[in-house]
Amino acid sequence: MSANKTINLTLKIWRQKNSKDQGKIETYPIEGISTDSSFLEMLDVLNDSLVEKGDDPVAFDHDCREGICGSCSLFINGQAHGPDRETTTCQLHMRSFKDGETIFIEPFRSAAFPVLKDLVVDRSAFDRIIASGGYISVNTSGNTQDANAIPINKVDADKAFDAATCIGCGACVATCKNGSAMLFTSAKVSQLALLPQGQVEAKTRVLNMVKQMDLEGFGNCSNTGACEVECPKGISLENIARMNREYIAAAATEEKKVKSVGVAM
Ligand code: SF4
Ligand code: FES
Asked: The pTM is what?
């Protein structure tokens, strides 16, 4: 085991008092940071020193600090969640940075994710996409069927599980030049579309979730694939292709229904 090493850094951090404030980058030198500490622990050290001086601490989102909640959301040196692959900001360690380095820290930027304060953005647009269809209707009155009673083939189960690992962080949106939420939405559609339990609402789900995604102001996918590269959970572009197939099939069914109603009239 190597001995604990410390590094000195210059932090360039986006400070913005509230959603109306224009905001600007402020510079903070910081010394004696253990390379074993996490990126958020490094920000905790900075905030302790700011509070001691009577200054406003830097606001940033976090909760689990173990890569599962999707709260942490920093753009670090121009990359969502920083330089390490498939790693959330809370799981990023200071050993990924060099002594004397300057680190730029900004919020996730997207028209659909307005900045609330400093590094905190409003990602409630994702909650509204989920509320529009990211669920299944199950009888929970006490007669629930054992989940294992429905056999599911391994390939589909694995793909559904992979899609379900999306933590809703928004790195895909922040990274995409179009501000597209297709990777997120397609993961949430896929995790249910691949399972028999998700079939009942499959058509309305994909139509409603895509509609809500558009209403929230997210951009369109142009297949650059940056979202997949920066996703901390390795969510595959394959999910976007699946969502497009699901959407086309559902929209065609809807169209047929409208036509048949039209004929009957
Ligand atoms: S698809 Fe990846 S980057 Fe996008 S919200 Fe889910 S976990 Fe985050
Ligand atoms: S704080 Fe929960 S994923 Fe980073």
From this structure: 0.93
